[in-house]
């Protein structure tokens, strides 16, 4: 959380509570954690899931990963924008997405799992892509709910 918050609030003048990922990185647990945090949004609490839509260190800079990252990004964007029930089911089973493990190899999914918390906290809000760019020949995107 350090880098996003440093850029957003350089004066460090807001209180922050950081939530750690659960061991095992189970999507269901993180979606449920987000659901538990959802009422905080009504109190004006900003919930940020800091991570990456692609995180395979061996894939950065390799043109062979461009179409793989694009396919996963397309799937992820559709999952985030789906109605909340479909979104939850898709994110719960993200491992079945096209090229999921090439984009997030075992140990790399800790960069995707924070999205599950944010999606769980979104409640009935639909997600949308707010940033997308090719970085080192891989597609990276960011999403917003509400």
Summarize the structure.
By secondary structure, the protein is α+β, with helices and mostly antiparallel strands. The chain has six helices and two strands, in the order ααααααββ.
What report would you give on this structure?
The structure is a single chain. This protein is of the alpha+beta class. The chain is built from six helices and two strands; from the N terminus they run H-H-H-H-H-H-E-E. The chain has helices spanning 2-8, 27-42, 66-81, 84-92, 100-103, 113-121, and strands at residues 127-135, 138-145. Strands 1-2 form a two-stranded antiparallel sheet. Helix 2 (27-42) crosses helix 6 and helix 3 packs antiparallel against helix 4 (84-92). The longest helix is centred in the first third of the chain and has 16 residues, at 27-42. The protein is globular, with a radius of gyration of 15 Å. The chain starts with a helix and ends with a strand. The model has no long low-confidence stretch (mean pLDDT 96).
List the helices and strands and how they pair.
Blueprint: H1 2-8, H2 27-42, H3 66-81, H4 84-92, H5 100-103, H6 113-121, E1 127-135, E2 138-145
Antiparallel strand pairs: 1-2
End-to-end C-alpha gap: 20 Å
Strand content: 5-15%
Shape: globular
Stretches with pLDDT under 50, minimum 5 residues: none
Portion in helices: 40-55%
Structural class: alpha+beta
Query: Could you give the order of the helices and strands?
Result: HHHHHHEE
Main traits of this protein?
146 residues, two-stranded antiparallel sheet, 6 helices, 2 strands
